[in-house]
Design a protein that fits this description.
The protein is an all-alpha fold. The longest helix is centred in the first third of the chain and has 30 residues.
Amino acid sequence: MKIRRTLTGIVGIIQSMIAILTVIFACSLYFNFFGIQMLFDVVAESLYFHILALLIFGFFSLISGLFLVYEWLKSR
């Protein structure tokens, strides 16, 4: 069971970090920091769909990762 607790904590932290990076990427895509829209050649008509999909994925992934971290902390 100790291995499972350790993996729960590691996976939760990694998942939360990926979710935060996804939300940051969606915000930088929206505000066009560093010319990201030109870099990825994003069409203006589909920009909002991409941002919405990234934000939804990021927030659900963040919530899931935080629940895993909470479960890990609770089991300690």
